[in-house]
Amino acid sequence: MKDKYEVLKLENQLCFPLYVCSKEIVKRYKPFLDAIDLTYTQYIAMMVLWEHKEMNVKELGSYLFLDSGTLTPVLKKLEQKGYITRKRDSDDERVLHVAITEQGEALKDRAIEIPAQIGRCVQLELEDAQKLFEITYKLLGTFGEE
Amino acid sequence: MKDKYEVLKLENQLCFPLYVCSKEIVKRYKPFLDAIDLTYTQYIAMMVLWEHKEMNVKELGSYLFLDSGTLTPVLKKLEQKGYITRKRDSDDERVLHVAITEQGEALKDRAIEIPAQIGRCVQLELEDAQKLFEITYKLLGTFGEE
DNA sequence: GTAAATTAAATTGTATACAATAGATTGAAA
DNA sequence: TTTCAATCTATTGTATACAATTTAATTTAC
After folding, report:
1. Shortest CA distance to A64 belongs to which of A85, A79, A42, A91?
2. pLDDT for residue B146
3. Residue A22: which nucleotide is closest by CA–C1'?
4. Could you list the residue range(s) of the whole structural domain that residue B51 is in?
5. B55-96: per-residue pLDDT in tens?
6. Which stretches of A36-101 are DSSP H helices?
7. How many separate domains does chain A show?
């Protein structure tokens, strides 16, 4: 008879390899991101702003699945570096607008090679990468609902 | 013509949904792990020790993809709680052996329902879960090589 | 029109992660 | 055997994450 504790073995967990893959890939970004003086969290925040130019903290958080507790210090750093501005909404002082600066815009050209560089670091066949992308996005879609 | 910055859009990244899925699932462990007073990192360390009873920090780190910088405080916490012991190897004082205690062993019975509870929280079809497991483990296998 | 509820950010506290370094011990090489 | 290199754990410093709370502003109820 099978050990009833089989379900508690690390190798039988689904979350664990996901957690490791996430960490390991993020780690591989480091040398490339160091070159443009960004952390991974700062990088994904910049990605949203490269695309949308302007956004408040709440919206940005819903894109990134991060709350203000995480974003506030990240955005202050990006402001210090001159890549974004932070300004309160004049109609609703609770809301803080984050907007990309020229300097932040310029950073885009220095970042453009990163996705391909990471692609070369991560040894995954195209088919697997596509499937992984598909499944994780499907899962991610279930998180908003509660 | 397609925007050359397309590759920098958040929605075109593979790492991002992986990173979000990992975080969101780990978050879902919290209420269940709170009930047995473990954090996620403590939980996966205990999983290895439930299975192997005894192990040094280096080995444990290679199972968990964590270094001593992360593990040292985690293991000290588990020792405080009485779930493990930490003892230097008498032949090689550099090595620290971690071993499960009776109390740690007993915790296994309180944890045994957690995998099924998480399974009910995560809305993923069996086929997708299997595929995700397969791909992430394949990827994880490429990390050791460098 | 004002009290109560809600909302958005920020703050606080705890727990990871990890790079880099340090400290101690052991192994290897000469 | 003694010096140098390698190994293992711990420490330090930085940056997340997130729960819980706080603060300030706005909205809703009445």
Report:
1. A42
2. 45
3. C17
4. 22-139
5. 999 999 999 999 999 999 999 999 999 999 999 999 999 999
6. 40-52, 57-64, 68-80
7. 1
**Assigned domain for A144 exists:** no
Nucleotide nearest to B94 (CA to C1'): D8
Q: Who contacts B137 (Cβ-Cβ below 8 Å, separation ≥6)?
A: A17
Residue B3 lies in a domain: no
Query: b or e along B69-98 (b: 16 or more beta carbons within 10 Å of the residue's beta carbon)?
Result: eebeebbebbeeeebbeeeeeeeeeeebbb
pLDDT at residue number A145: 56
Residue A146 has what pLDDT? 45
Mean per-residue pLDDT over chain A, rounded: 96
User: How far does A137 lie from chain B, in Å, by closest CA?
Assistant: 6
Confidence of residue A143 (pLDDT cuts 50, 70, 90): confident
Are the beta carbons of A10 and B51 separated by less than 8 Å?
yes
Percent of chain A having pLDDT more than 70? Answer: 98
| Residue A133, domain CATH | 1.10.10.10
DSSP B53: S
Instruction: Tell me, yes or no, whether B108 lies in a domain.
Output: yes
Question: Is B50 inside any structural domain?
Answer: yes
Residues of chain B under the 70 pLDDT cut: 1, 145-146
Closest chain B C-alpha to A63 CA, distance in angstroms:
9
- β-partners of residue B146 are none
- Which strands sit side by side in the sheet containing A84-88, from one edge to the other? A54-56, A96-100, A84-88
Closest by CA to A89, choosing from A64, A57, A67, A47, is A57
List CB contacts (< 8 A) between A132 and chain B. Answer: 14, 18, 132, 135-136, 139
> Phi/psi at B104 (nearest 5 deg)?
-65, -40
Please give the residue of chain B at the shortest CA–CA distance from A63: B10
Q: What is the average per-residue pLDDT within A102-113?
A: 97
